[in-house]
Amino acid sequence: MAAYTKHIFLIGMMGSGKTTIANMLSDKLNIPYIDTDKDLSSILSLSMEEIFNSLSEEKFRVLESVYFVEHLKNQQHIYATGGGIILNQNNRDAMEQYGKTIFLKASSNILFNRLMNDKHNKRPFFEKNQNQKFLTDMWNHRKKHYIESADHIINTDKKQYQKIVDEIMEILK
């Protein structure tokens, strides 16, 4: 496979598999990956829960965008983006300019089941609103931006992670 030289952005709702897929792609392509939420959390020395409790969502989105757009000027990475990164026009423009964006699309019932079964990751939005209607409403608010931002859409429902990675590898050829 010819070397892919731009950034690779994985976008999608929380629970869509962005971090797992980014990690697997990183191993396969020998390109470092960054989970933007985890990286921001590390930089601020705060958990995502603490960040959301101390900042409004609006302030968090500004901070996230400044961090994201500045980081893109560095070496090539695979980005497992925060689910709301597409809400900011600057972020959408940056993804279009600096790389290939792949939307990992999952249905709200699949997302709900994954999130309910994931006891290791705190997700501030979901922790406060553990119901499928909340996820459906969030999806309805964001779907236009996910679809418009994506160079490619991969439906992840009922697919094993390796199959998704294989599909992405085909896209990058």
How is the secondary structure organized here?
Blueprint: E1 7-11, H1 18-29, E2 33-35, H2 36-44, H3 48-54, H4 57-71, E3 78-80, H5 89-98, E4 99-105, H6 108-117, H7 124-128, H8 132-149, E5 152-155, H9 161-172
Parallel strand pairs: 1-3, 1-4, 2-3, 4-5
- Global Rg: 15 Å
Distance between the terminal alpha carbons, to the nearest Å?
6 Å
Q: Which class in CATH terms? A: Alpha Beta
CATH-defined architecture = 3-Layer(aba) Sandwich
Helix content range of the residues, please? 55-70%
Order of helices and strands: EHEHHHEHEHHHEH
The strands making up the biggest β-sheet line up spatially as 2-3-1-4-5
Could you say which structural class the secondary elements and strand pairing correspond to? alpha/beta
Tally of separate domains = 1
- Work out the number of β strands: 5
The low-confidence runs, each spanning 5 or more residues with pLDDT under 50, are none
CATH topology: Rossmann fold
- Assign the CATH superfamily: P-loop containing nucleotide triphosphate hydrolases
